[in-house]
Amino acid sequence: MDWTRGPPIGKGSFAAVYLASSATGELFALKSTDLSSSTSLQKEHCLISQLSSPYIVKCFGSGTTFESRKPVYNVFLEYVSGGTISEQIARQGGSLDERLIQSYARQILLGLSYLHCNGIVHCDIKGQNILIGEDEGLKIADFGCAKWVESSKFSKEMFAGTPAYMAPEVARGEEQSFPADIWALGCTVIEMATGSNPWSEMKDPASALYRIAYSGDVPEIPAWFSDSGKDFLSKCLTTDRKERWTAGELLQHHFLRENCGEIREFIRKSPTSVMDQGFWDLLEVSDSSRNATDISSNLESPANRINGLLTDAPSSSGWAAAEDDDWVTVRCGAEVDGCRNSVKQDSEQDAIASESDSFWGEDIQTSASVEDPLFDRFNNGYTDPSIRNPNPSWLKGHTVRQPCTHPSSGDHLLPKS
Fold it and tell me: Where in the sequence numbering do the catalytic residues fall?
């Protein structure tokens, strides 16, 4: 199958995301990284290929190509053109209407309920990882930090995510399970209401993380929020994870069951082919965005952009900075030896940024173990012949690895170790 890699449209936890099209003009998203450093992306594919929900971005398969004489690992994903919630907040002037927040929170919870019922924790819920599709429909994306809670190698020996959205128990290094996603949802609702990341009033990252872990404080709830909205957030942001409401309970909360009324129309349809006008509109927006990024990246160092996440910026540049090519990524996992040694600085000048600053700004992943029997089974080519090919017709003829599974997995989407 012939396909063409298009412009970059985003960045996941472990790879870049591109717009791509098949020979027949059908559009899809392509998440790619060098094969030599693709362990995390392969794990992500192994998990997400098992999922099937209208609130989760679809995965069509994976394959390896050779580009510039290097093997590249690619994951084929559903293309969702409306951008992220964080980008939508910027387009709407820094906050969203409460009726729209109700709709968005409900859809995120439907996606989380599906994941949690199948034993999966996303670990990195935030506005940047929620995509907007047709008719304001949301899809949870970027499963680079996600884990299957019944995998003994990952449930207690690993924490992952974006520090500003971490639940207190995660910040303390305790077990990261379903309640952590609910806390992150509450932080995301605050992001939608204020346009700022949680704890934006904190200037020192280390102090902020300590405050999250041990103070018993919760992010400030906007005063203009309705009483039912404030009560909803209080159920999400309970510091005791045992008292925090579940996704199923929150779906019954009166904040989400109230009549949302008429919501402003602003979402464009997702183009499915290069023949759609929306596709060309998207390219125009992408070109202008890249030009703006090139300019801003010359003016701001990664350290300054990290600090920008902790302050209330007058524009949306603080959110866009997280997607810039020059952003310092802090990520620790099976691909590196030691957390601190994995920090890649852009220059000696940027290296003066403190470890705590880098830690605060973006999603991270740490693990005490590099063993993963679930992934080993996938990486050794284990497949279940009873699984139907989930790939669209335009992927026929392309070498695509089938999703891992286990014939005796019962009610679980993923195999038990």
Answer: 124
